[in-house]
Amino acid sequence: MTGRPRSFDRDAALAAAVEQFWRVGYDETTIATLTSAMGVTPPSLYAAFGDKERLFQEASRTYFARTCEGMDEAATRPTAHEAIAEMLDGTARAHTDAATPPGCLVLTEPRLGSQRAAVRERLRSRLDRGVRDGDLPAATPTDELAGFLLAVMRGMSGCARDGGSAEDVLAIARTALRALPPPVDRGPLPPD
Amino acid sequence: MTGRPRSFDRDAALAAAVEQFWRVGYDETTIATLTSAMGVTPPSLYAAFGDKERLFQEASRTYFARTCEGMDEAATRPTAHEAIAEMLDGTARAHTDAATPPGCLVLTEPRLGSQRAAVRERLRSRLDRGVRDGDLPAATPTDELAGFLLAVMRGMSGCARDGGSAEDVLAIARTALRALPPPVDRGPLPPD
DNA sequence: GTCATTCCATAGCGATCACTACACAAGGAG
DNA sequence: CTCCTTGTGTAGTGATCGCTATGGAATGAC
Predict the structure, then answer these.
(1) Which of A60, A74, A82, B156 is the most exposed place for a label (fewest CB within 10 A)?
(2) Which CA-bearing residue is nearest the C1' of C6?
(3) Under the GO molecular function aspect, what terms does this record hold (chains A, B) (predicted)?
(4) Is residue B180 within 8 Å of B81, Cβ to Cβ?
(5) How far apart are the two ends of chain A, measured CA to CA in Å?
(6) What are the backbone angles phi and psi of residue A164, rounded to the nearest 5°?
């Protein structure tokens, strides 16, 4: 019933898998590189995580959860402009963090389209709140704008993957903010 | 000296190879799918194109030449705003043309970084001309702006690959234009 | 201790990868 | 026709892919 205990840290092994998928993508990641990076033999990998596909799903879910944390925290900024600026800034920092592979797994991996849609939905949701709060014009095309911002984030990821510096990626984010509608002036007091 | 003549159209076979690399990328394209799509057996492929790497180089060079044609033609527009708008519009149309795979080979394939740098350079060059012509402010950060536009184009390609419609991709292009500096008023005629 | 259960390590499965050896076919030169 | 050159088609190379059969090691239950 109980059996021999596992000889490796499952979470640590999963983190190593995340790092692999993140750096070279699903297709270029092989079971051999995974077992090497995770410090685990193939049978142990399959016993603990199923197959390559399920391991990738679990890895991408872990990765995506962290991404969403960052976005949700940035979304708490009082105005839509500040929130979007913080999201793009955090994205730029994450994409060029020397401690992790460049770019973003969700924005790069072809098969993670649904996660990208979720990111876009989060962007739109924050823009919608900006319209409700009155710091964005009522006529703001929030869905179009969210699609644009997702595209910019993807471009930032690609720039980082091509070796772009943190400043290069940040410059993209800064420029993208110019495409937002001008903030609505709501009087002498800050709206929050 | 003369030998047996080739039994297939080299250009047509190359075009089929371009289509393969374009649709699924370098890594996912196998010799087997290439020979099938090109209507050629492996020895003929290797005799005519070298190996997979050289075939890809020739295919991407062919593809890139067409891309540059489109950009150079768009660059002839009188103002920088019109030229950039035309480039983004042409990009959007190319990325969602039903007759070709969605997205862009150059903007998608990791190993084509130098071609992406060339696209960015073309964008910067046209922006620089806009500054010289006086339809962009003298202080315009043309290099940063070119990096931003390349990122947007990459995002447009990704959107198309994710199944985005022509209108979705065009909306990204339209929104990106809002990030350009306002045109310099150069007299009684409206600059737009 | 014995047993059942679970994990680990070696070793290798069939399939597919990029690529090619070999024999033959199709042309020009003489 | 006989050569010579070059392309074609079959069939298969060693390497690597994702994945697993098998046997032994490590635990708890009794």
Answers:
(1) A82
(2) A3
(3) DNA binding
(4) yes
(5) 57
(6) -65, 145
Percentage helix, strand, coil for chain B under 3-state DSSP, each rounded to 5: 70, 0, 30
The full set of domains in chain A, from first to last, is 10-177 (1.10.357.10)
Do residue A171 and residue B147 have CB atoms under 8 angstroms apart? yes
- Could you read off the pLDDT of B89-102 as tens digits, one per residue? 999 999 999 999 99
pLDDT tens profile B157-189: 999 999 999 999 999 999 999 999 998 866 555
Tens-place pLDDT, residues A153-178? 999 999 999 999 999 999 999 999 99
C-alpha A42/C-alpha A48 separation (Å) is 10
For residue B94, the surrounding DSSP H or E stretch is: helix B80-95
Q: Which nucleotide is nearest to A42 (CA to C1')?
A: D19
Structure tokens at A115: 């996660």
Q: How far apart are CA A44 and CA B1, in angstroms?
A: 60
Nearest to A152 among B28, B113, B155 (CB): B155
Which tokens hold the place of B70?
């489109």
